Sequence to fold (507 residues):
Amino acid sequence: MALAITTATLAMMTVHEALNVAIDISPPRAGLPWQQQQQQQQLQQQSGRLSEVVPHRLLLATHNVLAWYYPQYDTMEELHRGEGVHYGMFPGEPVAGHPRTLWNVLRPHNWRPTSEQEHLVQFDADTGMELARVQLPARFTHDAIRMGERVYVCSTGDGSMLELSYPGMKLLRKMHLFSEADHPNTLAAADDDHLWVMLHNLGPSDLVKVYVGPSSPPHEVSRIRNIGSKAHGLVAWGRQGQQQLILLDSDNAALVSLDPATGDEVELWQVPEEGMFLKGLAVLDDIAYFGITTWSHRSVRDSADSHGELAAFDLMRNKLLWRRVVHTSGLLNIIGAPHLAPDSTYVASYTRTLVPPTVMQAGHHPPRLGPTNYWSSGWPRLDIEPKLTSYAEAAGLQLPLFHADISALKAKLLAMPPAMWSKEEQAVSNAVMNGRNSNMERFKPGVDGMVLLFSDNNGEVVYQFPYYEYFKAELEPLLHEILGPADARNIVRIQFALMKPGTSDIQ
Fold:
């Protein structure tokens, strides 16, 4: 059973250019493997109908594997395996024949290592081919981030931080600000001249702001104490003026939001089971993705048979979306989206470019659909260009929003008298448009429907049907939540459809 909502966006737009939002209670279908997506993307680009397709994927760095993960399809694509621990990551410059590259920390496992050499390795982001390798004067390296033309590396084993040039990767200085006991493990840019450094502390953790600019030697500027226990991960998220730092209170297995101005923390979610540990964090399209694992001794954290969980938490809705086992082949360390942004491990990333919401006035149509607009609810609008291609599925998840609570509307639908679906009853209590019979019989044979709102062909005149009032109390809160009250006034068509058992010829 599905609800289709069509909204007008400009008076001159046709209904075919309008946005369709579907709330579907059927299970998701399997998606395309990445190789097939690539083939379809090439066809699209050759046709000139779609300039670029950005896949919805995350890069996972674990104690054994560097791999792309596709949340939409729950599949992994390995880039590298079996040479040690993968940690910090950031995108690299193109190399001849390799237009998309990334840099990744690769070091020996810290439990009885057979080598002391630690490296930053440049890989082809699609094939995993090694392109370059730079040895680091570091020990027990954890995070590595890029800030413009500088790269900062966390040498956790001696508490120091390395500053490298980018893209040359030449050592500029080694900053001795912390100790091995401080266990610095996570880096993030606070601004052009300051770094956030997370001190794990093997217990109650601190977040330190460090000056790394050119006018004076590096030094500690401020410190927020007790941000969690054995904390990891730090991602800036939120609108300007309301920005929060999302982090992992790892030993307490909690996802936390921190106000950097006040130091106030809010626990967003906590694993209900005992003995769990969180590590690896990124925010993509307002969803926080993070790793969940059972606490284990260092000696077994690189076991190829050890697989952790990945969780997705909707920061806009304050709701856990899912937890699932992912074949990480060892402890998950870092999550990022380096194909989207250089700072994807410490700043929220988006698959589409977003701008502040357009202020709507009553009776005014919103702007034309595109990748740079929001609904008045605050949710981003669909980029309609991929939708209009022959290979729209290759673009992946077009508009990741949230899981809407449709339980009240679903209960209303299931409790309504079955006769309400019949044309005979609707001719008396609602309305029937006989002109659409041939269309329904051709494309949707055996499917029953009912209309709540319907417009003329130009979307200029909208008719409200009696059944709208029947569903109003359950339906309107959903419309306001998805579109916002201002944009809900621009809806031109709302219809319900019921596919009965045995109906399978829908085109």
